């Protein structure tokens, strides 16, 4: 039986409990062997100057996933000096022959996927796994899923998850105004943010 590997990329600025919940559900619902968290290096769709230090984001993910035996972290995108495109990351992991790849992404990414680079190569390298996010209806997602499946002749898996309304930008905002964020992020990440005075 082939190994099934989830690829979960993101800026993770910071990683929060919503990310952990999504990864945990994907692992269990899809019977994956492991999930690799890949903090984004230089994401093409974000203003890089507004993203926190790469080493700090890596460390926060590392701390957050420490107690999950099937979760791993990769610095593949962080080591790149050029922009990080999903198709390149997925093709790199496919070339390692580590198993069948499942690319986990949110509703917002599926809705805007037509603007991504080399979508056909993304679809070729991995099975897309889409989870719902606040701001999108299930109907919208199902419709877009069908449209993308038809266009690329590939199946997309829809993960119906609880809508945890936690966002990294929201967590940063709470921290900057001195509010408590214990319920949004793991304790280890909270301590690291405080010790290193991030988002103040």
What would the average pLDDT be, to the nearest integer? 93
Termini separation = 48 Å
Structural class label: alpha/beta
State the helical fraction. Answer: 40-55%
SS strand fraction: 15-25%
Quick one: CATH superfamily? HUPs
Main beta-sheet annotation: 6 strands, parallel
CATH architecture: 3-Layer(aba) Sandwich
CATH topology: Rossmann fold
Low-pLDDT runs of 5+ residues are none
- The coarse overall form would be globular
CATH C-level class: Alpha Beta
Domain unit count:
1
The tally of helices reads 8
Strand order of the largest sheet: 3-2-1-4-5-6
Count of extended strands: 6
What string, H for helix and E for strand, traces the elements in order?
EHEHEHEHHEHEHH
* Rg of Cα set: 16 Å
Please provide a written account of the structure.
The radius of gyration is 16 Å and the shape is globular. It is an alpha/beta fold and 200 residues long. It contains eight helices and six strands. 40% of the residues lie in helices and 16% in strands. A six-stranded parallel beta sheet has the order 3-2-1-4-5-6, sandwiched between helices. The protein has helices at residues 17-29, 54-65, 86-95, 107-111, 119-125, 138-152, 168-176, 187-195; strands spanning 4-10, 34-39, 71-73, 100-106, 127-131, 156-159. The chain has one domain (4-195): HUPs (Rossmann fold), CATH 3.40.50. The mean pLDDT is 93.
């Amino acid at each position: 039986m082939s190994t099934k590997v989830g690829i979960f990329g993101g800026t993770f600025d910071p990683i929060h409990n919503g990310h952990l919940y999504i990864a945990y559900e994907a692992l269990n619902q899809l019977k994956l062997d492991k999930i690799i968290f890949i903090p984004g290096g230089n994401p093409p769709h974000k203003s890089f100057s507004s993203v926190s230090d790469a080493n700090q984001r890596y460390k926060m993910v590392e701390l957050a996933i420490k107690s999950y035996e099937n979760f791993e972290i990769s610095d593949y995108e962080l080591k790149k000096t050029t922009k990080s495109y999903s198709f390149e990351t997925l093709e790199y992991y496919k070339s390692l022959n580590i198993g069948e790849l499942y690319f986990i992404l949110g509703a917002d990414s599926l809705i805007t996927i037509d603007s991504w680079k080399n979508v056909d190569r993304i679809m070729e390298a991995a099975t897309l796994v889409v989870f719902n996010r606040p701001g999108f209806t299930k109907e919208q997602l199902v419709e877009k899923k069908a449209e993308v499946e038809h266009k690329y002749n590939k199946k997309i898996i829809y993960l119906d998850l609880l809508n945890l309304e936690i966002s990294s930008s929201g967590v940063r905002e709470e921290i900057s105004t001195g509010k408590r964020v214990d319920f949004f992020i793991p304790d280890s990440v909270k301590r690291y943010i405080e010790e290193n005075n991030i988002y103040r």
